[in-house]
C-alpha cells in the first residue's frame, strides 16, 4: 500500500465504501485507520 496522509486515508475509505469497490481494499484501509486511531466518520 502506498503511503497516505491521514486525510487521504479517510477519504479513500469513505470513497471505497460509497462505491462498494473491492472488499479486500476496504478491509485494508479499515485496519490502517484503526491502527492510526482515526475516526472516519463523525459521531
TrEMBL record:
This is Sporulation inhibitor A. It comes from Cytobacillus purgationiresistens.
Amino acid at each position: 500500500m502506498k503511503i497516505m496522509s491521514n486525510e487521504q486515508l479517510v477519504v479513500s475509505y469513505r470513497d471505497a465504501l460509497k462505491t462498494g469497490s473491492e472488499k479486500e481494499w476496504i478491509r485494508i484501509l479499515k485496519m490502517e485507520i484503526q491502527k492510526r486511531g482515526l475516526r472516519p466518520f463523525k459521531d
